[in-house]
Amino acid sequence: MTGTDTGVGKTIVTAALVHALTIQGLKAGVMKPIETGAPANAFADSDWLISVTGTPHQPGLITPYRFKTAAAPLVAATAEGVTIDPTRIVSALEELSSRHDCLIVEGIGGVLVPVTEDLLVVDLIRMMGLPALIVARSGLGSINHSLLTVEGLRTRGIPILGFIFNNCIRPPTDADRHRTIPTILQLTGLASYGELPYCEGLPETWEQHRDSLSAAIDVDGLLQVIGLRGIT
């Protein structure tokens, strides 16, 4: 699960997708390999994901690298005197994958965010051997960000499943928004697996909105494209 940029709502979409997969009867897990801006005693995004998805609390596997500095992984790791070892992340992925029918891995920032001095997020995706599902905004500016993300992934040979569009802020009622999504799909040739509605108060109001968020995802279409089928 990658995004067109920071703050696009990957964590909410990840939780909604895991909930939708669980309804289908699949044992779905989560992983957030790198998290920044997460002080040691704070309730961070990875903690929230664990709490709302019912994933067994295995922080060392779910989030191998967690930094208090709110910055790109390379910058945060350097500030805290840590060198990120991608093989540690791959090992954790393999362990978690063996315990679940489906594992949703939430990326950090956009695909060209630096992880180490010679490794970008897109390179880490390739090392992990994963296809990409892109979370994008539905409004103004999303066309450019989405096309750049697709180009970055395709340049590295990363298979792209398609898009999930997220209204992380209240959408304006203007003509631009109404043409943004079909324009992105037309220019990229990719599919959309849903548009999540704007929900006031997230993530605190998750329990109130989780069913409507999950229902907005075409989980059957996703299961078909990745070769999985629900148990129920």
Strand order of the largest sheet: 1-8-9-10
In the CATH hierarchy, what is the superfamily?
A: P-loop containing nucleotide triphosphate hydrolases
Number of helices: 10
Structural class: alpha/beta
Instruction: Report on the biggest sheet.
Output: 4 strands, parallel
Order of helix and strand elements from N to C terminus: EHEEHHEHHEEEHEHEHEHH
Rg computed from alpha carbons, rounded to a whole number of angstroms: 17 Å
Terminal CA distance reads: 24 Å
Poorly predicted regions:
none
Beta-strand share of residues: 15-25%
CATH architecture: 3-Layer(aba) Sandwich
Could you say what the CATH topology is called?
Answer: Rossmann fold
Shape, principal axes of CA atoms:
globular
Strand count: 10
CATH class: Alpha Beta
What features would you describe in this structure?
- With 232 residues, the protein is an alpha/beta fold.
- It has one domain: Rossmann fold (3-Layer(aba) Sandwich), CATH 3.40.50.300.
- Helices cover 43% and strands 16% of the residues.
- It has ten helices and ten strands.
- A four-stranded parallel β-sheet has the order 1-8-9-10, sandwiched between helices. A two-stranded parallel sheet has the order 2-5.
- Strand 8, helix 7 and strand 9 form a beta-alpha-beta unit.
- Helix 1 packs parallel to helix 2, helix 1 crosses helix 9 and helix 7 packs parallel to helix 8.
- The chain is globular and about 45 Å long.
- The mean pLDDT is 91.
What topology emerges from the helices and strands here?
Blueprint: E1 2-3, H1 10-23, E2 28-31, E3 34-35, H2 45-53, H3 59-62, E4 65-66, H4 73-79, H5 86-97, E5 102-105, E6 114-116, E7 119-120, H6 121-128, E8 132-137, H7 142-155, E9 160-166, H8 175-188, E10 192-196, H9 206-215, H10 219-226
Parallel strand pairs: 1-8, 2-5, 3-4, 8-9, 9-10
Antiparallel strand pairs: 6-7
Helix pairs in contact: 1-2, 1-9, 7-8
